[in-house]
Design goal:
Zincin-like, Immunoglobulin-like, alpha+beta, about 30% helix, about 25% strand, six-stranded antiparallel sheet, Neutral Protease, domain 2, 4 domains, five-stranded mixed sheet
Length: about 600
């Protein structure tokens, strides 16, 4: 027997100076096919035509995803329209003041950036589903939802109106698409933290403990709020998808979506990663959603929105997502310093760190960050960890120059007060630098020009020295050698997947997709390669037998010392009084 669900209705009514109203109707007649059906009714239409657009990207994820590729069967009840570019339909009214537009959307990518629909639940991330009327994104609206008969719950940050079961107020299109919606039969719970009600939707099975989540998430939220001294939300919503493979999170104005491993709630490293993700996405409700570069709002949904400051947006947030776990008591100082040292090692071991400034990494996120290839590590750096290390450096510079009276928190508070609360706008690159200098009481032109906008190595020794810590490369002088390839075992064949810049493999011509057959005549497999290489010393010459496109070749390679690093950060034995003061303020000891 065919299942015929009740229609999921989305009705958006909004008034402009001309009295125009817009209504969206969304239905899922066969959820298992992964198709949404959308009707848009426009009343009081005064124009002969109107352009209807589908966004090409989702704010917070800096890649043009071409959401219109999933649109099918676009039509109107007047039957008169034309596609004028990849994501814009021009609809003609034929003199009518009312017109209805309809289309279908295929939604079967389970990520925080897209919408998803199957027989078990529905997740809506609005930019991948809702079209908008060009020039009319500021119209207010309401959203009315009627669920299929066997679904009982809706979780969203949209404010529910009184008198109707699932009707919500939508101030404008930006809020509509910035308020993800989870629908189905998921678990729900709520708790209060920092004077704010927090609603949580849990889709999927997992080894979570709801009472523990209430306690631990509240601690993270309170630590985030303490940075700014105030929380802008009356309510906040977490949508958590428990999956086989988690894919991270995406921030929204008053909510976030997290996709995590369903068995990742055990105490220890996995659970700490979950709490760090909670801290990261929650911190974004200030940093990015309200404190933001001027390019990131109001959004242009048609094309890339360029900024040099994603290292601030994501890097500062990455710095705080670990620091806040220290402040909340989940890490002690030794564990925090160990994690920070690991981040430094990861960044300094990436050759692209010496090629691409973090400002360029921010600007080129649209074409590089989400489109990596086998050479990306040689040419790019992620603005997440590199930005976190720059945030750490600025934190220590401010602590040193203000005798531990101020820190990076004060920069964020200044940006919050001046640009969000007072001016209600984003800031420029120069305005951000000026804010840092104002708090530090020091000009930082060299740091911003050469270390941020350039590739000068962060002066870790000096900055950690401010807090009475020393940083040491524990691999220095080891005498180890390194070939410089990453490999994978493919059906018993050892295949090169990447070649590291400035290593022996790079210098002497090993290529990606080469099959390594033997070293000096000895057959090798993936787990034996490093063992074989370890038998040699710098200056030794080895012959590597490879197959390249089916042709057997021998590549002669002269091995060199392993120049990769592994850092350790430890407090010094006899810090000065000032170093003690900075250390205590920095790590909340």
């Amino acid at each position: 027997m065919r299942f015929i669900p009740l229609i999921l209705l989305v009705f958006v009514a909004s008034a402009s100076s001309f009295g125009q109203t817009i209504g969206y109707q969304l239905s899922m007649p066969e959820p298992h096919t992964h198709y949404f059906h959308v009707d848009i009714k426009i009343d009081e239409l005064k124009d002969d035509s109107i352009d209807v657009k589908m966004p090409v990207w989702a704010p917070g994820s800096y890649l043009v995803r071409e959401f219109s590729k999933n649109v099918e069967n676009f039509n109107t009840d007047k039957g008169n329209f034309k596609l004028i570019n990849k994501n814009t339909w021009r609809v003609y009214s034929k003199g009518s003041s009312t017109i209805t537009i309809s289309y279908d959307v295929y939604a079967f990518e389970m990520s925080v950036r897209t919408s998803f629909l199957d027989a078990s639940h529905s997740y809506v991330n609005g930019t991948s589903l809702f079209m908008y009327l060009d020039g009319k994104k500021n119209l207010s609206s309401t959203l009315e939802i009627t669920l299929p008969v066997d679904w009982k719950k809706i979780t969203t940050s949209l404010e529910r109106t009184s008198g109707k079961t699932f009707t919500y107020k939508v101030p404008n299109y930006d809020i509509l698409v910035d308020s993800p919606i989870e629908m189905g039969n998921h678990q729900e719970f709520e708790f209060e933290a920092s004077g704010v009600k927090h609603n949580v939707a849990l889709y999927g099975e997992g080894n979570f403990n709801i009472e523990l989540l209430k306690t631990d998430m509240a601690k993270i939220i309170e630590a985030c709020t303490d940075v700014f001294g105030q929380n802008p939300n009356k309510e906040y919503t977490f949508i958590i998808h428990n999956l086989t493979h988690g894919s991270g999170g995406l921030e929204h104005l008053s909510s976030t979506t997290l996709q995590v491993n369903r068995w990742g709630y055990e105490s220890g490293r996995k659970y700490e990663r979950f709490l760090s993700l909670v801290a990261h996405e929650y911190f974004h409700l200030w940093n990015v959603k309200r404190i933001r570069p001027i390019a990131l709002g109001p959004f242009d949904y048609d094309s890339e929105n360029y900024t040099n400051l994603l290292w601030l947006c994501e890097g500062f947030t990455s710095y705080y997502d670990e620091l806040l776990l220290k402040r909340a008591g989940y890490y002690d100082a030794d564990k925090y310093l160990s994690k920070l040292a690991s981040t430094i090692s990861r960044v300094e071991n990436q050759p692209g760190n010496k090629v691409q400034p973090v400002t360029e990494a921010s600007f080129h996120a649209w074409i590089k960050a989400y489109r990596s290839n086998e050479n990306s590590r040689n040419t790019t750096i992620s603005y997440y960890p590199k930005g976190a290390l720059l945030a750490n450096a600025l934190d220590l510079i401010i602590l040193e120059n203000t005798n531990a009276e101020k820190n990076l928190d004060d920069v964020l508070k200044l940006l919050w007060d001046e640009y969000y609360k007072k001016q209600n706008r984003g800031f420029t690159d120069l305005e951000f630098q000026t804010a840092v200098e104002q708090v530090a009481g020091k000009k930082l032109g060299d740091f911003f020009q050469n270390t941020v906008a350039g590739i000068k190595t962060i002066d870790y020794t000096t900055y950690f020295g401010y807090a009475g810590c020393e940083i040491t490369n524990t691999k220095e002088g080891s005498g180890n050698v390194r070939l410089g390839v990453n490999t994978s075992d493919k059906n018993g064949r050892l295949i090169v997947t990447s070649v590291v810049r400035e290593t022996a493999a790079y210098k002497y011509g090993l290529n990606v997709n080469d099959e390594i057959i033997a070293i000096n005549g000895y057959r090798t497999v993936d787990n034996e390669l490093s063992t074989l290489i370890d038998n040699y010393k710098a200056g030794d010459k080895i012959n590597i037998t490879i197959s390249r496109d089916g042709i057997i070749k021998i590549i002669s390679v002269t091995l060199a010392n392993d120049t990769s690093v592994k850092y350790e950060i430890v407090p010094i034995e006899n810090p000065t009084d000032k170093q003690k003061k900075i250390y205590k303020k920095w790590l909340s000891e």
